[in-house]
Every structure is written in C-alpha cells, then in structure tokens.
Amino acid sequence: MSSVLAAATAAAPVLATMPPRQRAEALVAAADALLAAADELVPLAMAETGLAEPRLRGEIKRTAVQLKLFADVAAAGEFLDVRLDAADPDFVLGPRPDLRRYLVPLGPVLNFAASNFPFAFSVAGGDTASALAAGCPVVVKAHPGHPRLSDRTAQIVGAALPAGALGVIHGQEEGVAALRDERIAGASFTGSLAGGRALAEIAAARPHPIPFYGELGSLNPVVVTPSALAERASAIAQGFAVSVSGSAGQLCTKPGLLFVPAEFAAAEAFEGVAPHRLLHPGIVDGYARRRTEILGTPGVTVTVEGAVTDDGVTPTLVETDLATLLKHRDTLLEEAFGPLSVVVRYTPGEPLGAALTELIEGSLTAGVHIGAAEDSPWLHELVTALQSLSGRVLFNGWPTGVAVTPAMQHGGPFPATTNPTTTSVGTAAITRFLRPVVFQDCPQSLLPEPLRDDNPWNVPQHRSPAGESSAWGSLAT
C-alpha cells in the first residue's frame, strides 16, 4: 500500500499542472486500451463474478464511453469554473481588488470499488474517470469479488496514464489504512449502507477530515396510477419483471417497491427466469437473510416464491398493502440486494405522496407510470413527493439502466448517498474532486495558466468588468 500511495502522491502535481487537453488524450488512450483488451478481460470477469458475457461486454463499452466523456469534459476546461473579477475602484461597496477564482484538484483520491459493476464502478469506472479528469491520481481499493480482474484492468488502463496516476490495493485493512492516510485527499465508495457509514465516519474523524462520497442503498419506489394500469397492465408487468430480475437484482437502481392501485397480475411475467449466480458468498448470505425476513412478515403474501440454491437465485415477489408497509416498515423498508421486490396496494385518491415522504428516507430514483395525457392535483402532489425523496424521477420507465450522459444524476438523499448534492454518473461528478482557490491582486507571471489574461490553456473565463456592480439587480426588473 505504501508504494501505491507514494506513487499517487508523486503523480498529483504532474496531473494537476497537466493541460486539460493532455489529460483528455490520456483518458481516450485508456478507453481505447480497455476496449482493445475486452477479449481478455471479459472472460476473467465472467469467471470471478458469474455475470453473463453480453452484460459484461456492454459494461466494458460503457466504461470506455465514461472515460471518453470525461476526456471531453477535461479538454473543454469548463469544469475549472474560472471567474475573473477586474479591479474596480468604483465598486458599489468600496474599491474591489483583482480577484481570480478557479477549481483545483483535491489530490490523491481513494476509490472503494463496487462488486456489481466490475468495470463501470470499479478500477476504471466513473469515479476513477471523473477524478482523473479533475487532475487527481486514483488509488482503487479493489473489491474482493474480482481481484484478478482489478489488477489486470489497472495494468492495462494505467499504462495509458502518467506514472502513479492509477494504483490498486487489496483488503479491508489496507482500505481503511489508506482512508486514514494523510496523503489521501478524498474518497468515493459504492456498497452497503453499513460499510459506507463506517467509512464515512473514519473520513470525518481524521485529524484533517476529507470529503467522502458514498453510494449506499436504495429502494427506488415506482408508482403505477389507475389510468396506467388500465391502459397497459401487461406491459408494465413485463417491464417490472425485467427490471427486478436483470443481473439477478444486483443493481442499486432495482425497483424494490412497486405501488399499484389494485390487484396486479405480475407472476406470469416472472415465469421462466433462469437461476442466476450471485456475485459472492457475502451477497448470497445477505440476500437470503432479507428474503427470510420479508417472507416472514405478517400481512405479506408471496406471489412468486423464487429460491436460493447452489445453482443461483430466482426472483421472489411479495404483495402487501400500504397499512402493512407502514406497520412493518422496520422489516420491509431495507434494501434486499437481489431479485426481490415488494408490491404495495394503495387506494386510488389517497394521499400517496405524503405516505411516501413519511416512509422513504432517500432513494437514488423514484418513478411513476401514468396514463396518456394524465394530469391531476393528486399526480402533481405525488411527483413533488418523488422529487423530494430521490435524485432522478422517471416517467413510464424503469430505473435500472443509468445513461452515461452529461445531465444524468446518480445520487440522492441519505441513505442513497452520503452527500445529496453530488452525482457519481454524468459530467457533474467531476465537482466532487475539486476545490476552489482565489488569487487576489496577483502578478500575471505568478498566476496559474487558467487565470492569466493570455489564457494559454484556452479555457472558458467568466469575466466581471469594472463598473458592472452599479447595474446589479436590473435583471430582476
């Protein structure tokens, strides 16, 4: 671990002063190297995770797209958020100095990799891509579910980057030690609520606390309105089954709660789903425990029993009503990481939005299926509630499948994430690994390149000229 941290520390000033276009070139080279190695990496991932080849080939492509997306973010330079306020002797509050503000990289970042996305949320995943684009070296604490894949991915991707920019460590003890190490300036995590909370507390308790961005757990409630159910009940059932059972339900965006206004015939849609291996024994144990707890809850009816066997798991679907969910919230409102979901009946017209706000603390996503041209005060209230408890509100769709695109938000109120103002997918993810610095009355020769008048990096600069303050407030009128 010590050598990896030392290499990252040495790489930090190199990355920080590297012109954005050079960072971009390195990220594109890393993406191309990853794609070129797909025939080697995918079989290794299949052996370690049990995930299917089509899923993994799609994921490796997604990972390369993430790297290239952040290459463009780096090259554009807009992420630096350069703001130049000219010296102004006539400033309305008294003379204003010359102020030049921009964002600088935090320094070495520790990334705790996820088990369920061995490419996209692992060594070369979105956290790594956004940190590298920001100019931060990355130390990845590899997930024990795919250690050989982690090492090989780091070798392939790291060869395209400056020396020390990407390193891997293994083991819980090393991960915790690295999080406590003063050379680490920030951390990201994707995993369980218990693990994320423990690591967040360590990051906050350091002599010099650091930002910790954790993605923890999510129920992702979806509501079906009476109009939607009347129009397309069969299609909704089919989409629900695919979303719950895909990748054996081992997705942080799996819909764990489905609210319906009447009896919902979904069992048929789950027929024929083949057993699927879970990622590692720890997930098997956790899923089996949650499944047993849910099936044993009074007032819960089993619709699709499913199973946990040596060959893998098959989906489990249960049904209850809103009153039971409220009564047994301690049992039913904990994520079951696997192919299990709870269907909840509600009475049409009742204040469902208020009930969801009371029941659900925070979620990555929330969704609603509505009828053609449906609109009502009840629906507006529901949508407002879904916005308050999640980071992404979907209409007539399913939350599994997170588009890698600038506007994506993959984060939400606690316990979905430790910081509801950030995202781990989309170009805004880069802001997690940056901090602001202002230079006041600094000579041009001593200014960093993005703040100089000649702008050698050719990045966007937002300028506030002298005399502007006298007109402040005019836009409001």
Q: What's the SSE blueprint?
A:
Elements: H1 2-16, H2 20-36, H3 38-49, H4 53-76, E1 82-85, E2 99-105, E3 109-112, H5 126-134, E4 138-141, H6 147-158, E5 166-169, H7 172-180, E6 186-190, H8 193-205, E7 212-215, E8 222-224, H9 226-245, E9 257-260, H10 281-295, E10 301-304, E11 307-309, E12 312-314, E13 316-321, H11 322-327, H12 329-332, E14 340-345, H13 352-359, E15 363-369, H14 377-389, E16 390-395, E17 434-440, E18 461-464
Parallel strand pairs: 1-18, 3-4, 3-6, 4-5, 6-7, 8-9, 8-15, 9-14, 13-14, 15-16
Antiparallel strand pairs: 1-2, 2-17, 10-13, 11-12
Helix pairs in contact: 2-4, 2-6, 3-4, 3-6, 4-5, 13-14
Protein name: Aldehyde dehydrogenase (NADP(+))
InterPro entries: Ald_DH/histidinol_DH, Ald_DH_C, Ald_DH_N, Aldehyde_DH_dom, Aldehyde_DH_Superfamily, ALDH_KGSADH
Keywords: Oxidoreductase
What does this structure look like?
It is a single chain. The protein is α/β, with parallel strands linked by helices and 477 residues long. The protein folds into two domains: 2-216 and 420-434, Aldehyde Dehydrogenase, Chain A, domain 1; 222-395, Aldehyde Dehydrogenase, Chain A, domain 2 (3-Layer(aba) Sandwich). Helices cover 37% and strands 18% of the residues. It is built from 14 helices and 18 strands. The chain has helices at residues 2-16, 20-36, 38-49, 53-76, 126-134, 147-158, 172-180, 193-205, 226-245, 281-295, 322-327, 329-332, 352-359, 377-389; strands spanning 82-85, 99-105, 109-112, 138-141, 166-169, 186-190, 212-215, 222-224, 257-260, 301-304, 307-309, 312-314, 316-321, 340-345, 363-369, 390-395, 434-440, 461-464. It has a seven-stranded mixed beta sheet, sandwiched between helices. Strand 8 (222-224), helix 9 (226-245) and strand 9 form a beta-alpha-beta unit. Helix 2 crosses helix 6. Residues 4-265 form the Aldehyde dehydrogenase domain. Keywords: Oxidoreductase. This is Aldehyde dehydrogenase (NADP(+)).
